[in-house]
Amino acid sequence: MGNQYLEDLHDAIFHAFDRFDDHMYEFQFGENFNSPDNKSYVLPYYESSSMFASNNIAGKVDTTRIDSLSLTVGQSFYYWFDFGDDWIHWIDVISIDKEIPQEKYPKITERIGKSPPQYIDWDEEDEDVDEENEEADE
Predict the structure, then answer these.
(1) 96-116 pLDDT, tens per residue?
(2) Distance CA 61, CA 43 (A)
(3) What is the DSSP letter of 67?
(4) Which of 2, 24, 52, 77 is 20 to 30 A (C-alpha) from 34?
């Protein structure tokens, strides 16, 4: 997987969460999410087109290979998807293998539960709250 790009990791996460509507995203490396000291890897057009542009742009997702990041086991970093709905993922590096496997990576190795919906159906949410309130009143 090290010879792949951050863009490939985005694609894997995007599909793992059953998302269908692409949005802007970035990867951040630092102690805390959105810390001003974080190094950000952004979309190719990001610097000039976004009010969210980081002051610490370290590279582009389509040209930054994962093996160039000098990741270490135990290190964490962040993937921020959809700057309006703020899907923030904390990614832990759990192993680094030097051998290149013959399988296609990145890949989903395990799923736990259903993916949350990309967009909340607020009408449905309101109906659920109304039903809960009616039951509480009885």
Answers:
(1) 887 767 777 777 778 888 888
(2) 6
(3) G
(4) 2
The pLDDT tens digits for 9-56 are: 999 999 998 888 888 999 999 999 988 889 999 998 776 544 455 568
**Which residue, 59, 63, 93, is CA-closest to 78?**
93
How many angstroms separate the CA atoms of 46 and 55, rounded? 12
Domain boundaries, the chain: 6-110
Query: What is the chain's length?
Result: 138
56-91 burial code (b ≥16 CB/10 A, e <16): eeebbbeebebeebebeeeeebbbbbbeeeebeeee
